Amino acid sequence: xxxxxxxxxxxxxxxxxxxxxxxxxxxxxxxxxxxxxxxxxxxxxxxxxxxxxxxxxxxxxxxxxxxxxxxxxxxxxxxxxxxxxxxxxxxxxxxxxxxxxxxxxxxxxxxxxxxxxxxxxxxxxxxxxxxxxxxxxxxxxxxxxxxxxxxxxxxxxxxxxxxxxxxxxxxxxxxxxxxxxxxxxxxxxxxxxxxxxxxxx
Length: 201
Prior knowledge:
Elements lengths: L1 H7 L6 H4 L3 E4 L15 H12 L2 E12 L5 E9 L6 H27 L7 E5 L12 E8 L16 E10 L2 E10 L5 H11 L2
Antiparallel strand pairs: 1-2, 2-3, 3-7, 4-5, 5-6, 6-7
Helix pairs in contact: 3-4
């Protein structure tokens, strides 16, 4: 539906929201993935729950990079038809049950797509502070990837651990996913929380 696509493409973030040093960047050669996860069993269960909601719109490819650290934040927005009541709750329930396994398998699959075997990868849940508005609608996971540096800019050392903050905002028919990639040791929780608050508006 055209109105849903316009909704998906509405600007959610800006450098003003993110803080100093952030600028919007083009995602060169980045194709939208209709299914955001991999082909493993956990990802397949989540995708089945997604498809049951009748996806109507998708926008993926808006990204922001931090000038000094090289951290990269990518935003994805999905909109669903939700023809039947309760499908959104079922989708989230499956996500919460399968998310860690699905993210770990998806990260390994992405490495195989690049022709490289993945190293140690682990996804863990992050508890949101009680002060975060609408925290009951937000799921935050942190993925640690020990495979090595990624990205053509090579701002991350080849032997560095890369961390991905994977945050989902459940907002009725709309689902906003933010993925913030940064080197291990950088504390960017404040950026995540500001981004989530803005994306939830």
